[in-house]
Amino acid sequence: MIQRARSQATTGHVIVGDGDARRAARLSNALATAGFTVATATNGMEVLGACSRRTPNLVLIDRGLPTIDGHGLLQRLA
Fold first, then answer.
1. Could you tell me which of 26, 20, 19, 15 has the C-alpha nearest to residue 59?
2. Phi, psi values for residue 16, rounded to 5°
3. Per-residue pLDDT tens for 21-48?
4. Separation of alpha carbons 30 and 76, rounded Å
5. Disulfide check for 61: which of 17, 22, 38, 56 has CB 3.0–4.6 Å away?
6. Cβ distance 44 to 66 under 8 Å?
7. What's CA 33's distance to the chain center, in Å?
8. Do 16 and 38 meet the contact criterion of CB atoms below 8 Å apart?
9. Helices (H), 1-78
């Protein structure tokens, strides 16, 4: 029963937004290996689109994203 609770607590949907596609891929692979479903985005508009398609449990964003920066995304997502 404890193992089942841990398993449920570690799964969820994460959006990784980073202008560096290689860094986003590395983080995405690590999260997927840990059991999360992951969507990646390389600019702020892609992050907003990913959020509208499926509500994430967590959004990890780079402050310096192209099109809409991290601060702008936080304002729009709040």
1. 15
2. -110, 115
3. 999 999 999 999 999 999 999 999 999 9
4. 27
5. 17
6. yes
7. 14
8. yes
9. 2-9, 21-33, 44-53, 70-77
Rounded Cα distance between 73 and 78, Å, is 8
Provide the whole-model pTM: 0.82
Whole-angstrom distance, CA of residue 1 vs CA of residue 37: 23
The one-letter amino acid code at 52 reads S
Q: In this structure, what token pair is assigned to residue 51?
A: 């959020």
Q: Encoding tokens for residue 47?
A: 């992050």
End-to-end CA distance of the chain: 35
Residues 6+ apart with CB under 8 A from 12: 36, 37, 56, 57, 58
Residue type, 24: A
Residue pair 76/48 in contact (Cβ under 8 Å)? The answer is: yes
- Name 61's bridge partners: 17
